[in-house]
Write a structure and sequence with these properties.
The complex is a heterodimer of chains A (210) and B (592).
Chain A: E1 2-4, E2 12-14, H1 41-71, H2 83-103, H3 108-135, H4 144-174, H5 183-208
Helix pairs in contact in A: 1-4, 1-5, 2-3, 2-5, 3-4, 4-5
Chain B: H1 18-23, H2 28-58, H3 65-70, H4 82-101, H5 103-118, H6 126-145, H7 177-206, H8 219-250, E1 262-263, E2 266-267, H9 275-309, H10 316-329, H11 345-373, H12 382-404, H13 407-413, H14 417-447, H15 453-479, H16 499-529, E3 559-561, E4 589-591
Antiparallel strand pairs in B: 1-2
Helix pairs in contact in B: 2-4, 2-5, 2-6, 2-16, 4-5, 5-7, 5-8, 5-9, 6-7, 7-8, 8-9, 8-10, 9-11, 9-12, 9-14, 10-11, 11-12, 12-14, 12-15, 14-15, 15-16
Classes of the chains: A mainly alpha (210), B mainly alpha (592).
The complex binds protoporphyrin IX containing FE and copper (II) ion.
Chain lengths: 210, 592
C-alpha cells in the first residue's frame, strides 16, 4: 500500500546564500534591512523604469506640440537663439567626458569634474537662450509657439538638473573614495546620456517642425 | 528524504520609536496600512458627498439648515445651488477614482502583500515607498483644501475638461483657486503614483525568491505587476496634461484654450490652444486608469475563488495572459470616451473595434472564474461572497460596456445616466467589492484576528442588493434620456415620470451607505476584540500564510523561503491534505 508521508518541513535559505539567485548579491547592503541583501541591480531596473515614465511624459508633450502646431492658427514661429547650437555641443561633450571618466579609472575625478562643469555650462547656456528671447519680447504666454519653446526646454532643464545633482554628488564622493565602478556612476551615466538624447530630440523638433 | 535546510536567521531590530515605526515608516506593511486608512477616510468623505447629491436629486429644493451653516455660499437658505451640486460631484468623482480606487487595491494591499507573496523582505526601494505615500497624503490635503478656499471646490467634473477648467474664476464658482488646487493635487498624485509603480515593477522583477518563477506568481501579484506597468505609462501622460493645464491657469499660456472665446460677455485673452488636446491626453491616461482600479480586484478575486472553492484556479496561464492583454489593449481604446467630440467616423470605428476586443480577455477571465467555482467544495465565507459579487458586477458592467462601445448607440447614451450606471458597476462598485473581499480575506494576516463573519455576511447582503438597487435603475433612466451631471430634473416635462425612480435610488443609496457603518464597526472592533486567527486560517497556499500574523518587520526573519510549486495547489490527488503550500518541497510517496 502506498501512503503519503506528511509534508517535510519548509525549506529556507539564508539571504546571503549564493543559491538564492534572484535577490541576493551578497553585498550586505540593504536599506532598512540591515544585513539583508537587496540586489544592487534593482537600481538599474528602477532607473530604466523611471526613464520609461520620462519618455511617456515627453511623448505627451511632443504630441501636444504637433497637434497645436497643426491646428493653432496663431502659431508664430520663435526665432531659435543661436546659442542653442553651442549648448548642444556642450551637452554632447559632457557625455563624452563621463565615458572618459568611467574608462580612465585613475583619473576618474578629473574627467568627472569636467563633465559636471560642462553640465553647469549647458544649463547656463539654456538660461542665456531664455534671456535672449525675453529681451526680444518673447515670453511664455506670447503665443503658442513660444509657450512650447519654454515648456520643452524648461522641462528638459528640470530633468537635467536632477542629473546634475547626481553628478555633483558623485564628484564630491569621488574625492574620498574610488567611484569608477560604483553602481551610482553607471546609473548617473545612463541617465545623463538619456538626457542628451532627449535634448537632441527636442532640439530637432523645435528646429524642423515649425 | 529532503532535509530541511537549517539557516541561522540574520535577525535585526525593527525601528524603535513611534515616528519611525508608524509615521515615517519604511516597512511596506505599515505603508500598506497607511494607504488603506487613507482610502478608508477618503471613501467616507466620498460617500458623504454622494449622500448630499442623492438627497438633492430626489428632493430638490428642500431646506437643510445644516447645509447653510456649513456652506453659506453653496447652499444659501439651506438649499443647494446647482453649482454647488456640481462641485460635490467633481470632488466625489475625483476622491473616489484617485484616492480610493487607485489607492486601496494597489498601493494598500499591493504594498502589504506583494513582497510577502514573492518571498521578499520589503519593496525594492523602501524610501521611495514612504515618499509615495506622503506625497499622496499631501495631494489629498491639497484636494480637500478646495472645499474651504474662496469660491469653493471646482465644478468641472473628475475629467476636468477645458476650457471650463482652464479659464479661472470668470468661468464659474470654484474655477479659481479651487480648480488650481485640483490640478495641483492631481499632478502630485501622478508623481506619487509614478514612484509607486516604479517600486512595484522593480520589486516583482528583481526580488522574487528562489523558485518563484513568473509562472508561479499568485495572480494577485500578476495583477499588481501589470497595474503598475499601466500606472507607469499612464500617469506620466496625465502629469504632462496637468502641467499644461496649470500653466494655462497660472502663467497665462493657451495650450487648451482656443482663440475668440467670450465668457460672461467678456473677451478671453487667450489664443491658439485646443480643448480636444486635453481630452486625448486625459483619456489616454483615463482608460488605463479604470483598469488600474479594477485589475487588482481581479487578482484578489482569482485568489479567493481558488482558496474557497478548494480548487486550482481554472486556466492559470490564460488568466495571466488575459491580464496582460487587458493591460495592453487598454492603451488603444481611449477614443471611446470621445465619440461625440467630432472625431471622424473612421476613427470612431477603430476605437469601437479595439474596445470590443477588450471583451475577449474579459470573457476569458469570467469563464475561468466560473470554471474555478464549478464542482468546487465552496466555502461561503464573507471574502468569498464579495469575490463572487465582484464577478457578478463585472459581468453586469461589462455588458453595458458593449452597448456604449458602439458609436451610434453612444451618441444617444453618452452623458446620460446609462454611462453613470456602467462605470459605477464596472469600475466603482466592482473595485470596492474587490477591496472588501481583500479586507475580509487578509485581515487575519494583517491584524492576527478575524473580522466577524456574521456581521460580514449581513454587510455583504445589504451591500450587494443595495448597489444593484442603486445602479440598475439608472440604465433605464439613461435610456429615457435622463442627462448626467445635472443638479435636478424637475424642470423637464419628459422626466416627470422618473422622479419616483430617483427617490427609490436615493433611499437605496442611504440604506446601502448606512450599512457600511457595519463594516466600520466590524473593522475597528475586530482589530481589538476579534476572534484570534491562526497563521493560515483559510488553509491557503501562498507564502504570506507561512509567516506569523502580523508578519515580523523583515517578513521571513532574515531568511528567504524557497518555492517549489505553483500558487493554487488545492485538492491535489494523493496529497495528505487539501492544500500544498508554495514552499512545500516535493511530496514523497512511501511504500509500505
Ligand atoms: C473592465 C473595466 C472597465 C472599467 C473600469 C470601465 C470604466 C469606464 C468609465 C469610468 C467610463 C467613464 C465615462 C464618462 O465619464 O463619461 C467608461 C466609459 C466607457 N466604457 Fe468602460 N469600463 C470598463 C470596461 C469596458 C468594456 C469591457 C467596454 C466595452 C466592451 C467599455 C466601454 C466603454 C465605453 C464605450 C465608454 C464611453 C461611454 C461614454 O462616454 O458615453 N468599458 N468606462
Ligand atoms: Cu475607457
Amino acid at each position: 500500500m502506498a501512503t503519503i508521508a506528511p509534508p517535510p518541513p519548509l525549506e529556507y535559505l539564508s539571504t546571503r546564500d549564493p543559491d538564492l539567485p534572484t535577490w541576493s548579491d551578497g553585498d550586505g547592503e540593504g536599506d532598512s534591512h540591515g544585513p539583508q541583501a537587496l540586489p544592487e541591480r534593482r537600481y538599474l531596473t528602477g532607473l530604466l523604469l523611471g526613464l520609461a515614465a520620462v519618455v511617456m511624459f515627453f511623448t505627451a508633450l511632443t504630441s501636444a506640440y504637433v497637434v497645436n502646431q497643426g491646428i493653432s492658427g496663431q502659431w508664430e514661429q520663435v526665432p531659435l537663439p543661436r546659442i542653442l547650437w553651442a549648448s548642444t555641443v556642450i551637452l554632447l561633450l559632457s557625455s563624452l567626458a563621463i565615458e572618459k571618466a568611467r574608462r580612465a579609472k585613475k583619473h576618474f575625478g578629473r574627467w568627472w569634474e569636467i563633465a559636471t562643469l560642462l553640465g553647469v555650462l549647458f544649463l547656463s547656456a539654456q538660461l542665456a537662450a531664455f534671456r535672449r528671447l525675453a529681451s526680444a519680447g518673447i515670453y511664455m504666454d506670447t503665443n503658442p509657439a513660444s509657450s512650447f519653446f519654454y515648456l520643452l526646454t524648461g522641462a528638459h532643464a528640470i530633468h537635467l538638473l536632477g542629473g546634475l545633482t547626481a553628478l555633483l554628488y558623485i564628484w564630491i564622493r569621488s574625492r574620498r573614495e574610488m567611484m569608477a565602478d560604483h553602481i551610482a556612476v553607471k546609473a548617473t551615466a545612463i541617465y545623463w546620456h538619456f538626457m542628451d538624447g532627449l535634448w537632441l530630440w527636442l532640439f530637432l523638433l523645435l528646429l524642423l517642425w515649425r | 528524504m529532503t532535509e530541511a535546510v537549517h539557516v541561522e536567521p540574520v535577525v535585526h531590530q525593527a525601528p524603535q520609536g513611534f515616528i519611525r515605526k508608524y509615521i515615517f515608516s519604511l516597512d511596506h506593511k505599515v505603508i500598506g496600512i497607511q494607504y488603506y486608512l487613507l482610502a478608508l477616510f477618503s471613501v467616507m468623505v466620498g460617500m458623504l458627498l454622494s449622500v448630499l447629491m442623492r438627497f438633492n436629486l430626489a428632493w430638490p429644493g428642500t431646506e437643510v439648515p445644516i447645509l447653510e451653516t456649513l456652506f453659506p455660499v453653496g447652499a444659501p437658505g439651506g438649499i443647494m445651488t446647482p453649482e454647488f451640486y456640481l462641485s460635490l460631484m467633481t470632488m466625489h468623482g475625483t476622491i473616489m477614482v484617485f484616492f480610493v480606487l487607485t489607492t486601496a487595491p494597489q498601493s494598500g494591499f499591493g504594498n502589504y502583500f506583494l513582497p510577502l507573496q514573492i518571498g521578499a523582505p520589503d519593496m525594492a526601494f523602501p524610501t521611495l515607498n514612504m515618499l509615495s505615500f506622503w506625497i499622496t497624503f499631501v495631494s489629498l490635503l491639497v484636494l480637500l483644501a478646495a472645499f474651504v478656499v474662496t469660491g469653493g471646490a471646482p465644478i468641472s467634473g473628475w475629467t476636468g475638461y477645458p476650457p471650463l477648467s482652464a479659464l479661472g474664476e470668470i468661468a464659474g464658482p470654484g474655477l479659481g483657486t479651487g480648480q488650481t488646487l485640483w490640478v495641483a493635487s492631481i499632478a502630485l498624485f501622478c508623481v506619487a503614483s509614478l514612484l509607486g509603480a516604479l517600486n512595484f515593477i522593480t520589486t516583482t522583477i528583481d526580488l522574487r525568491t528562489k523558485g518563484m518563477s513568473m509562472m508561479r506568481l499568485p495572480l494577485t501579484v500578476w495583477a499588481w505587476f501589470v497595474t503598475a506597468i499601466l500606472a507607469l505609462l499612464a500617469f506620466g501622460v496625465l502629469l504632462a496634461a496637468g502641467v499644461l493645464l496649470l500653466l494655462d491657469r497660472v502663467v497665462g499660456t493657451s495650450f487648451f484654450i482656443p482663440a475668440g472665446l467670450v465668457v460672461s460677455d467678456q473677451m478671453i485673452n487667450h489664443k491658439g490652444g485646443s480643448p480636444l488636446l486635453w481630452q486625448h491626453l486625459f483619456w489616454f491616461f483615463g482608460h488605463p486608469e479604470v483598469y488600474i482600479a479594477i485589475l487588482p480586484g481581479m487578482g484578489v478575486t482569482s485568489q479567493i475563488l481558488s482558496t474557497f472553492a478548494r480548487k486550482p484556479i481554472f486556466g492559470y496561464r490564460a488568466m495571466a495572459y488575459a491580464i496582460m492583454a487587458i493591460g495592453l489593449v487598454s492603451f488603444i481604446v481611449w477614443g471611446h470616451h470621445m465619440f461625440l467630440s467630432g472625431m471622424s467616423p473612421y476613427s470612431a470605428m477603430v476605437f469601437s473595434l479595439t474596445t470590443t476586443a477588450v471583451a475577449v480577455p474579459s470573457a476569458i477571465k469570467t469563464f475561468n472564474w466560473l470554471g474555478t467555482l464549478w464542482g468546487g467544495r465552496v466555502r461561503f465565507t464573507t471574502a468569498m461572497l464579495f469575490a463572487i459579487g465582484f464577478v457578478s458586477l463585472f459581468v453586469t458592467g461589462g455588458v453595458s460596456g458593449l452597448f456604449l462601445n458602439q458609436p451610434s448607440v453612444d451618441i444617444y447614451l453618452h452623458d446620460t445616466y446609462f454611462v453613470v450606471a456602467h462605470f459605477h458597476m464596472i469600475m466603482g462598485v466592482a473595485a470596492i467589492f474587490g477591496i472588501f473581499a481583500a479586507t475580509y480575506y487578509w485581515f487575519p494576516k494583517m491584524f492576527a484576528r478575524h473580522l466577524s463573519e456574521r456581521l460580514g455576511k449581513i454587510h455583504f447582503w445589504i451591500t450587494f442588493v443595495g448597489v444593484y438597487s442603486i445602479f440598475m435603475p439608472m440604465h433605464f433612466l439613461g435610456v429615457m434620456g435622463n442627462p448626467r451631471r445635472y443638479a435636478e430634473f424637475t424642470a423637464f416635462e419628459f422626466l416627470a415620470d422618473v422622479v419616483p425612480i430617483h427617490e427609490f435610488i436615493s433611499i437605496a443609496a442611504f440604506v446601502t451607505i448606512g450599512a457600511q457603518l457595519l463594516f466600520a464597526v466590524n473593522f475597528f472592533w475586530s482589530i481589538a476584540r476579534g476572534k484570534i486567527a491562526e497563521i493560515n486560517p483559510w488553509s491557503a497556499t501562498t507564502l504570506e500564510w507561512t509567516v506569523p500574523s502580523p508578519p515580523p518587520h523583515d517578513n521571513f526573519g532574515g531568511r528567504a523561503p524557497v518555492v517549489h510549486r505553483g500558487p493554487y495547489e488545492y485538492s491535489v490527488p494523493g496529497a495528505s491534505r487539501d492544500f500544498i503550500l508554495q514552499s512545500e518541497p516535493e511530496m514523497k510517496v512511501v511504500h509500505q
